[in-house]
Amino acid sequence: MTSMTEPVPEPARPRRARGASAADLAHLLGAPVPDVAGGAAERMLLGVTLDSRSVEPGDLWCALPGAHAHGAQFAAQAAGLGASMALTDPAGRERCEAAGLPVLVVEDPRTATATAAAVVQGRPADRLATIGVTGTNGKTSITTAITRTLLELAVPAGAIGTSGTSYRDARGADHAIGTVRTTPEAPELHGLLARMVEDDVEVVSMEVSSHALVLHRADEVVYDVACFTNLTQDHLDFHGTMENYFQAKRLLFTPAHARRGIVCVDDEWGRRLAREAQIPVTTFTTRADVEADHRAGPHRPQGYGSTFEVEGPEGARTLQAALPGRHYVANTLAAELLLAAIGHTGEEVAEALGRAGTVPGRMEPVALDPIRGIVDYSHTPDALEQTLSTLRGVPGTRRVLVVMGAGGDRDRGKRPRMGEVAARLADVVIVTDDNPRTEDPAAIRREVLDGIPDRTNAQVHEVGGRGEAIALAAYLADVSDTILVAGKGAETGQQIGGIVQPFDDRLRLRDALRDAHTARGDADDMDEGR
């Protein structure tokens, strides 16, 4: 059984601290040891944190400069909770000292924070088999497939990413640790890895975001193997240009971050990365017109997923993808190659990978008959295009209805492109709210609608409330139609005006389909996807 039980949430640090002396850490960072009463140099630092609210006695608290304020303003809180020492830049020194904290002063506190976290936790990444996956789309699917495959093979393994952190220890117990970012901040990351080492986990698969690479969150982890999936427009609110976005991803394929790479060369960004990577790389493709070390042939439907042949240096082999579509063929092949890179090969591995199952919120079937209801995380133009194209190609599909929108406080340039994709590939488009965050939801919807041509064959609706939009899709759908609810995947909340309200697309779609079709008498016949 690969499915995990319902584990109790746990802290992102080991139970027993390894620790490091302040003097040793100061020497490593090139920082002078504070000259204060009480022997600061002899102090043992037992943990590292950025959050003044999560400080525990004996911690090194790291006060970093931010976009709007300096972390040092919270020095009194950190000191009050028992921080042993602070690490900051010259701008934060005075506030930390005023709070009574000995201070390690460095010019680049972000980089130093990662080093400190790794050292204090005993460099846990060196004691695990580590896989890092980057790219715009596919990261969660690949890391989840790897972890579930290893669990099928009775290998203690874990994953860190968009869905949080989870792992199964060597005794078979499941653990869940809530994390906010795709790639956690360095102190949290090394704490998580140390906890896995403590529980005799053997392999960890991580999503490595472009933000993490630029902001040094993933520093001091040299992955045994790194993977690149693809690059399409996203996060340009942070990176500014696609070139900057690419350069951020490229950092993972340097000796400071990985020993070897697996690169999908389906797009030009992947082909460029394969040429420019500073580590040895193996390439793969799903395209017949692209040269690569491993090539996936045409996929054939099998159940909800598909099977396909792979041509590689050692001949042909057959793999099975648990989900439909060419992008899941690519994800499955990536997972197989990554597993092989850390020593897991053979028919037993391939069979376990084929059984790895669906990923929550990724092409997840809520209902399959008489109306197919699918929830997917596709929140970029390319991901939405791939998902809609895949669903349109499923045998027996009559119409495709899509409920979609765009997130607030994120890359605005992709909004009209998503509207254009939806109208081109769906028969019915219902533009609604995603996570508006601090933006005006109606303004976001207008930007999405601006991308839909005046002359479109799609039936277009604008519905502000996401629940009402899903209900409308269920009302409009008929036998053999497919409803796609796109954008939020497995998220269980909706961020509106700084408040997270409970909202799960999967539950709403399941309930809406039942409510809309009870009167027609087909609700009892609905085959729910689980």
TrEMBL record:
Residues covered by region (Disordered): 1-20
Domain Mur ligase C-terminal per the UniProt entry, residue ranges: 361-489
GO molecular function: ATP binding; magnesium ion binding; UDP-N-acetylmuramoylalanyl-D-glutamate-2,6-diaminopimelate ligase activity
Listed GO CC annotations: cytoplasm
Chief localization: cytoplasm
Keywords on record: ATP-binding, Cell cycle, Cell division, Cell shape, Cell wall biogenesis/degradation, Cytoplasm, Ligase, Magnesium, Nucleotide-binding, Peptidoglycan synthesis
Entry superkingdom: Bacteria
Cofactor(s) in the UniProt record: Mg(2+)
Enzyme class, broadest EC rank: ligase
Membrane-spanning intervals of the chain: none
InterPro entries assigned to the protein according to its UniProt record, in alphabetical order: Mur-like_cat_sf, Mur_ligase_C, Mur_ligase_C_dom_sf, Mur_ligase_cen, Mur_ligase_N, MurE/MurF_N, UDP-N-AcMur-Glu-dNH2Pim_ligase
Domain Mur ligase central, first and last residues per copy: 133-336
EC number: 6.3.2.13
Catalytic activity: UDP-N-acetyl-alpha-D-muramoyl-L-alanyl-D-glutamate + meso-2,6-diaminopimelate + ATP = UDP-N-acetyl-alpha-D-muramoyl-L-alanyl-gamma-D-glutamyl-meso-2,6-diaminopimelate + ADP + phosphate + H(+)
GO biological process: cell division; cell wall organization; peptidoglycan biosynthetic process; regulation of cell shape
Binding site for ATP: G135, T136, N137, G138, K139, T140, S141
Domain Mur ligase N-terminal catalytic: 47-118
Keyword Coiled coil among record annotations: no
Protein residues bound to UDP-N-acetyl-alpha-D-muramoyl-L-alanyl-D-glutamate: L50, S52, T182, T183, S209, R217
Motif position, Meso-diaminopimelate recognition motif: 434-437
Modified residues (N6-carboxylysine): K249
PANTHER family: MUR LIGASE FAMILY MEMBER, UDP-N-ACETYLMURAMOYL-L-ALANYL-D-GLUTAMATE--2,6-DIAMINOPIMELATE LIGASE MURE HOMOLOG, CHLOROPLASTIC
Functional note: Catalyzes the addition of meso-diaminopimelic acid to the nucleotide precursor UDP-N-acetylmuramoyl-L-alanyl-D-glutamate (UMAG) in the biosynthesis of bacterial cell-wall peptidoglycan.
Alphabetical list of HAMAP family matching this protein: MurE (MF_00208)
Protein name: UDP-N-acetylmuramoyl-L-alanyl-D-glutamate--2,6-diaminopimelate ligase
Organism: Brachybacterium vulturis
Phylogenetic classification of the source organism: Bacteria, Bacillati, Actinomycetota, Actinomycetes, Micrococcales
Gene transcribed to yield this protein: murE
